[in-house]
Amino acid sequence: MSEFSHLDESGAARMVDVSEKPAAARTAVASGTLHTTAEVVALLAEGGLPKGDALATARIAGIMGAKRTPDLVPLCHPIALSGVDVEFELGHSEVHVTATARTTERTGVEMEALTAVSVAGLALHDMVKAVDAAASMDGVRLDRKEGGKAGVWTRPEGR
Amino acid sequence: MSEFSHLDESGAARMVDVSEKPAAARTAVASGTLHTTAEVVALLAEGGLPKGDALATARIAGIMGAKRTPDLVPLCHPIALSGVDVEFELGHSEVHVTATARTTERTGVEMEALTAVSVAGLALHDMVKAVDAAASMDGVRLDRKEGGKAGVWTRPEGR
Amino acid sequence: MSEFSHLDESGAARMVDVSEKPAAARTAVASGTLHTTAEVVALLAEGGLPKGDALATARIAGIMGAKRTPDLVPLCHPIALSGVDVEFELGHSEVHVTATARTTERTGVEMEALTAVSVAGLALHDMVKAVDAAASMDGVRLDRKEGGKAGVWTRPEGR
Amino acid sequence: MSEFSHLDESGAARMVDVSEKPAAARTAVASGTLHTTAEVVALLAEGGLPKGDALATARIAGIMGAKRTPDLVPLCHPIALSGVDVEFELGHSEVHVTATARTTERTGVEMEALTAVSVAGLALHDMVKAVDAAASMDGVRLDRKEGGKAGVWTRPEGR
Amino acid sequence: MSEFSHLDESGAARMVDVSEKPAAARTAVASGTLHTTAEVVALLAEGGLPKGDALATARIAGIMGAKRTPDLVPLCHPIALSGVDVEFELGHSEVHVTATARTTERTGVEMEALTAVSVAGLALHDMVKAVDAAASMDGVRLDRKEGGKAGVWTRPEGR
Amino acid sequence: MSEFSHLDESGAARMVDVSEKPAAARTAVASGTLHTTAEVVALLAEGGLPKGDALATARIAGIMGAKRTPDLVPLCHPIALSGVDVEFELGHSEVHVTATARTTERTGVEMEALTAVSVAGLALHDMVKAVDAAASMDGVRLDRKEGGKAGVWTRPEGR
User: Going by fewer Cβ within 10 Å, which terminus of chain C is more open, N or C?
Assistant: First the structure.
């Protein structure tokens, strides 16, 4: 059975030694969806254009959140991110968030992409909560990663 | 139609002035669920006991994350949190996370509770990703809040 | 001759004890101006409207920067900010930044307002530097403060 | 007409992908001037020697501020700074601040040098504000940068 | 037998709810000693005067460290510190560090005073390590606290 | 006589330029001991097993603290840590803390290892202080470092 690499044989948490891993270009894409109301999505989008600073605020939060990943996720390595994008797609009553993170370091950027999505989601939550306190962030997950020894991984159908 | 209080009349983001709101005891409860595999849940729980530091790591991440809320969510007020709890419930192939945040300040702690859940979820994601890269965090949402002028709010059925 | 309150009689830096000061509503307004080129201002404003996320990015940076004041300015007290606004006014070849900070604590928010202006200025600098490396941030200063024992102060003419 | 590289074609903010840029030794020098009163400068300098911890406090603030650049400036890349200096020159009624930042990474350190100057300026502002509330930080700008594909840039006369 | 208040009945870590505790003036004093060599102490003190920025750097580190306490100590409450002092006393081959922290909040500032001492000690360690890699920080401990329901506590003789 | 490399010839603090130093695998081991009471150690260890989250909390604090080193120690370079371990050994009335930090950068990780020990010690202090307010952290020191031009250093006997 597979084991958690973040725990040593005694079960103690550790930041795994990646000294021996090669520096390599690595990319990760993650996404998630804030489910809210049609009214809120209408406030966010008027005629297809972002309204005021609402989406920009969440985008900046996601990008800055990606940089905070090692401060937030206890066993993540601090790395030099070489790029982050956060995109929003407005649906009928939901906002779909996609984040892409890139590095050229010894370890992957899955957590940076997931953190960008989560923090952008928190900023959206904060923006809409006075109008829709019942909004829900769903499906925060990794979609794709590539680079390093493991090569390309894409999310299997049905998960 | 309701408006976003975080944007002024021109659409510019702002940290709303809460000087006039009364200091009051306020509580918020949020939750979410990491969907993973039965194998991962078995690794997290052996005989009903937490395995090593896995859940403790995520719990600490959530509590510390709650304290970082104003650093992460751009328009949140910095407040003196008076207490935070993060609890996990292990299901068949999922981990349910619940966080409670408390303050006695001029503004609510919904975002602190939601941030605790999201960051605990990120730490779980990080812990399990080598075993289950397809894990997904779902239903990150506010369950209940009380305190201040608005009184008690509980999540309506069906949302 | 007046002395620096941030240094004790031996010249050692300290965070002054404000325990005896009353909690009170306090406001500070600060401003500054990024001098750049007419080309850059035209990129920032097209027909009077902000272009994309440029100004929103700087506004969010300023608001988040205000919250980071005690992390940046060594002898500043950590306080619960009750509100922050950052506004931009576009001139011919300059961007004027004004920030207002509010609290209800035992110490003033001059540094929070000045930090909001400086950090918004840094974000503008970062945005425009590929087009105008020679941009300059000038006149970062306090315009007005009120609240607490000292009452209202407004910047004297000619300074 | 030149465009802002920090915005994509739709105007959305992004942290630009620098994966393809070469790692190289890079240096940036920035400066600025705090205009205050002759009385304040006399307090800062007695017989040519720094008084107590005043300038040291501002110097440390500037150095630590440079390290905080990616936390403050939303679209800046987190990088491994390889050195930072902050120097002060006392004039009649002003303090001139110069900062030099160095790295061997894929992107320049202009923002780190500018942030060091701005944060040192904020710390000076904080130190002197009880004596001179009307102090002003001016001319925060890049003086010189070198390294990477762009080679050496020096500030043109008259800007 | 006494129990750890930071763990609930199941052993899970939590940030204890202090909502019911009264806001009160509270003070804590902590200290510690860096043991190094006579040569290093001579470098730090020449004729009784601090040399350059060495001690100022450590003092600022301690004061800023106190403000970072809730970011560092997982179960500490974020509080509004109302004052921090860090003092050094130079002995033959050691530097004694004393820190005083003050607040008017619902919980004590023991950890803030201990953190100021520890972080000032780390900065001293960093300053001297090229000359004395074997320096040691000892006796980091609480000396006195007062305020709140518990009243005054002073360290017992012989501990 | 040796000089502090962190100060320039005028005594001003600086972050030393390490651009010319080679990137290399580097390791540092540091340790320290929290002296408390047998009662507290019994609470931490029941039958050899960690009780609840107490030690995990301190371990996570130490690992996260190591990542915060450049934020805490003013003249430390920000680096990409490639691994951190924190271990506890329970004695009769003391807890011994050992931390190992690794990097492949241009500068050593002594301060990261020392910070991990200090912050883990602070978290233990916080955990036990309600039961033993007189606990003391002692012997925080570097035990061994290797890598880079200086090769292997081990702590001499008798220091």
Answer: N
Contact C95, C37 (CB under 8 A): no
SS3 labels along E59-90: HHHHHHHHHCHHHHCCCCCCCCEEEEEEEEEE
pLDDT digits (tens, 9 = 90+) for A19-56: 999 999 999 999 999 999 999 999 988 755 556 688 99
Are the beta carbons of E75 and F127 separated by less than 8 Å? yes
Residues near B34 by beta carbon (within 8 Å), at least 6 away in sequence: B94, B95, B97, B121, B124, B125, B128, B135, B136, B137, B138
Q: Kindly determine whether residue F15 and residue D63, on different chains, have CB atoms separated by under 8 Å.
A: yes
Q: Which fold has domain F26-147?
A: Alpha-Beta Plaits (3.30.70)
Cα gap E116→E123, rounded to integer Å = 11
Catalytic residue, chosen from D8, D71, D126, D138, is: D126
pLDDT exceeds cutoff 80 at E3: no
What token pair was written down for C117?
């202006």
CB contact under 8 A, B80 and E12: no
Q: Choose the catalytic residue: E8, E53, E71, E126.
A: E126
Instruction: Provide the shortest C-alpha distance from residue C147 to chain E (in Å).
Output: 18
The answer to whether D112 touches D101, Cβ cutoff 8 Å, is yes
Q: Which residues contact E99 (CB under 8 A, 6 or more apart)?
A: E29, E30, E31, E62, E66, E84, E85, E86, E87, E113, E114, E116, E117, E120
The string of DSSP letters for chain A reads ----TTB-TTS-B-B---TTSPP--EEEEEEEEEE--HHHHHHHEETTEEPTTHHHHHHHHHHHHHHTHHHHSTTPPP--EEEEEEEEEE-SSEEEEEEEEEE-SSS--HHHHHHHHHHHHHHHHHHHTTT-TT-EEEEEEEEEEE-STT--EEPPTT-
Q: Nearest residue on chain C to B107, judged by CA atoms?
A: C82
For testing the chain F interface, which of E3, E72, E86 should be mutated: the one with the most F CBs within 10 Å? E72
DSSP SS3 for B35? strand
Q: Which residues contact E46 (CB under 8 A, 6 or more apart)?
A: none
- Cα of B18 to nearest chain C Cα, Å: 5
Angle between the N-to-C axes of helices E54-67 and E110-128, in degrees from 0 to 180, rounded to the nearest 10:
150
The response to whether C146 counts as a known ligand-binding position is: no
Tell me the two tokens of residue F102. Answer: 């690794």
Q: Do F74 and E60 touch (CB under 8 A)?
A: yes
Mutation for testing the D interface, residue in A53, A82, A98 having most D CBs under 10 Å = A82
Q: What is the distance between the alpha carbons of residues E34 and F130, in angstroms, rounded to a whole number?
A: 26
Tens digit of pLDDT for each residue in C31-90?
Answer: 999 999 999 999 988 755 556 688 999 999 999 999 999 999 999 999 999 999 999 999
Tell which CATH classification among 3.40.50.720, 3.30.70.640, 3.30.420.110, 3.40.630.30 matches the domain B26-146: 3.30.70.640
How confident is the model at residue A53, as a pLDDT? 87
- Please give the pLDDT value at position F3: 76
Asked about C71 being catalytic, the answer comes back as no
**C8, C53, C71, C126: which one is catalytic?**
C126
Give CA E93 to chain center in angstroms.
Answer: 21
Give the length of chain F: 159
- What's domain A33-147's superfamily in CATH? Molybdopterin cofactor biosynthesis C (MoaC) domain (3.30.70.640)
CATH topology classification for D30-146: Alpha-Beta Plaits (3.30.70)
Minimum distance, in Å, between the CA of residue C126 and any CA atom of chain D: 7
CA neighbor of B41 nearest in space, from B99, B118, B128, B134: B128
